[in-house]
Amino acid sequence: MNLVIRSLIRTFAPMNIKDKKIAVLLSGGVDSSVVLYELVRQGLKPDCFYIKIGPEEEEEWDCSSEEDLEMATAVSHKYGCKLEVIDCHKEYWDQVTKYTMDKVKAGLTPNPDVMCNRLIKFGAFHEKRGKDYDLIATGHYATTEEEPLTSHLSPLTSRKWLCTSPDPVKDQTDFLAQIYDWQLEKALFPIGHMMKEEVREIAEREHLAPAHRRDSQGICFLGKINYNDYIRRYLGELPGDVIELETGKKIGEHKGHWFHTIGQRKGMGLGGGPWFVIKKDIEQNIIYVSHGYDPESAYKQDFPIRDFHSINGVLPPTDITLKIRHTPEYLPAKLEMTGDGSYLVHAAAPIHGVAPGQFCVVYDAQHHRCYGSGEITI
């Protein structure tokens, strides 16, 4: 992204926060650590919190939460800020895990991290401690901006928007696209206007404990735990047939349709690949695959979404850009409203791996403002 655009985005970084009571969510990673540094650098002394959402049997799951907490403690002590551990374990497993397992059992492709932000980081934490603070600061790569409102019919003087980060690889607005308007009002993203390299440089220069830690991958709490093991723990296995779509021939078996998603091209355990998961018959527990490189049947250009969640109440325009997974690319498309919260998406070009249950995250045509997201329902 060029320097002019980055400069414009930086102007929307919150400035008037001197009199605000701020809570910082420390994860033990480099991003949230630099968040604390940035706030302290501005003369602020926020309170720090570590949200505990780890697995029920840590010794079995090889959870890294102990190291995370050690890192968070070191950073908070460096700046003389108190750190409090908030146990959201039950809320996570009652809400996010239930959501995840219900979806995968129904043959869908959920995103637990999206719901973790809405239900835990800006939800359960708010109920326990966040409600006592004006702002909740996190290490998300996202920005916000205020749009002045001139209507005399509204008691509000401005509208807050969730906006993208200048770092397209690290941008996390897609993970925030299900939060509520009141959650966005309290959200503060002090490093959202930075590139990842800048954050790393600051952490190294300031000798922050997590400076050289690798970025976490996958579901927020799993660490080294395999996602399929996570699913197997709750749903077990359900062997079924793998059938070639074009011929109807059985070419193998799977251990449960919930271990596979539309568009998947690895981990099938079939010879003579690559094989692509094209569709799933949930009632018959059959997975249909196609052989060859990117077969046409693995792509979709038109697909429905339902239950569109607008972050700040503004519905998206016809011309949009979108994401269906966490990638740097924003795909141009048109939206056709079909009902209450339902749309048809008409992408400018076929999209690989469109799967039911995924969130379709909607942005303006310039992929700057994020309107929200809806669930793909193919």
Can you walk me through this structure?
- This protein is of the alpha/beta class.
- About 25% of the residues lie in helices and about 30% in strands.
- It is built from 9 helices and 17 strands.
- It has helices at about 5-10, 30-40, 60, 65-80, 90-105, 110-130, 180-185, 195-205, 225-235; strands at about 20-25, 45-50, 85, 135, 145-150, 160-165, 185-190, 240-245, 250-255, 275-280, 285-290, 300-310, 320-325, 330-340, 340-350, 360-365, 370-375.
- The strands form 3 sheets. A 6-stranded antiparallel β-barrel has the order 12-15-14-13-16-17. Strands 3-2-1-4-7 form a 5-stranded parallel β-sheet, sandwiched between helices. Strands 9-8-11-10 form a 4-stranded mixed β-sheet, with no helix packed on it.
- Strand 16 and strand 17 (about 370-375) form a beta hairpin.
- Helix 5 (about 90-105) runs antiparallel to helix 6 (about 110-130).
- It starts with a helix and ends with a strand.
- Mean pLDDT is about 90; it is low at about 1-15.
Order of helices and strands: HEHEHHEHHEEEHEHHEEEEEEEEEE
CA-to-CA gap between the ends? 34 Å
Question: Approximately how much helix is present in the residues?
Answer: 25-40%
Question: What's the main sheet like?
Answer: 6 strands, antiparallel, barrel
Low-pLDDT segments, ≥5 res: 1-15
Rg, rounded, reads 22 Å
Strand content: 25-35%
In terms of structural class, how would the helical and strand content be classed? alpha/beta
Give the CA-based shape.
Answer: globular
Could you report the average pLDDT, rounded to the nearest whole number? 89
* Order of adjacent strands in the largest pleated sheet: 12-15-14-13-16-17
Q: Count the helices. How many?
A: 9
Number of strands: 17
